[in-house]
Design brief:
By secondary structure, this protein is an alpha/beta fold. The protein has a single domain (2-93, 164-244), classed as Rossmann fold (3-Layer(aba) Sandwich), CATH 3.40.50. It is 32% helix and 25% strand. The protein is built from seven helices and ten strands. The chain has a six-stranded mixed sheet with strand order 6-7-8-3-9-10.
Length: 247
């Protein structure tokens, strides 16, 4: 689970400060996807950066599992990101010289101890995740040999490599057509449920919102729709939501 309690973040602007996130409280529970939407410049990416421990808020707390991340130093925050937080960037940022399988294996070995059997376990984990995202046949292809949707699938698999409790996703469909975007959203919903990850997903793409377990809206840094602990819709209700929206 990830919980943001009364989080505020400001940035300097000349002699003043601009508020990017304004007293936001929000909870994402294991196995669910919470969408964060709102107009450009509303603070969505800043909120995600705070949740990812990439930026420390001015006030409030961010809790991942039982850990208050705002109390961590830089080294401790980096270790938490490595072990407990998966980040899916808007651009896949894949290393051009590495195959799809190698992209994942590198993530599995970063900062890890060289325990006996660790390399074999990393190989198995990478193969399992590539299979989960439907790319077993592309494991030896480099990014320029993959489509945009396939690169985004590698991006998602890479974020899951260390079995994170929290998955943070930034505009995963922005560079994809509607069909490929829908496939990525369904993949994120399925993997979040299967791997019991608490997922926060920032998106402008309103067509996908009915698929989400919960949707909140930010305007000028403030949460204007969705209370901190709104009940999550049960998964059995999702097909009815799809039907209502013609999906």
């Amino acid at each position: 689970m990830i919980r943001l309690d009364d989080v505020t973040l400001t940035f300097p602007d000349g002699d003043a400060r601009v508020t990017a996130v304004d007293h936001v409280s929000l909870t994402a529970r294991p196995g669910t996807v919470t969408a964060v939407t709102g107009p450009s410049g509303s603070g969505k990416s800043s909120l995600l950066a705070v949740a990812a421990t990439l930026i420390r808020p001015d006030s409030g707390t961010v809790t991942v599992g039982e850990v208050d991340t705002t109390a961590l130093d830089a080294r401790e925050a980096a270790e938490l990101r490595r072990t407990s937080i998966g980040i899916v960037f808007q651009q896949s940022n894949l290393l051009p010289s590495l195959t799809a399988g190698e992209q994942l294996r590198v993530m599995g070995e970063l900062g890890g101890r060289r325990a006996p059997g660790a390399r074999a376990a990393t190989l198995r984990r990478a193969d399992e995740l590539l299979d989960a995202v439907g790319l077993s046949a592309q494991r030896d292809r480099r990014p320029h040999q993959l489509s945009g949707g396939q690169r985004q699938r590698v991006n998602i698999a890479r974020a899951l490599m260390n079995d994170p409790a929290v998955l943070l996703v930034d505009e995963p469909t922005s560079a994809l057509d509607q069909e490929r975007g829908a496939e990525i959203i369904e993949l994120l919903l399925r993997l979040s449920a299967e791997r019991d990850a608490a997922t926060l997903l920032v998106t402008h793409d309103v067509v996908h919102l009915p698929r989400m377990h919960r949707v909140v809206r930010l305007v000028d840094g403030r949460l204007v729709d969705g209370r901190p602990d709104d009940p999550v819709r049960d998964a059995v209700d999702l097909p009815h939501a799809h039907a209502r929206h013609g999906i």
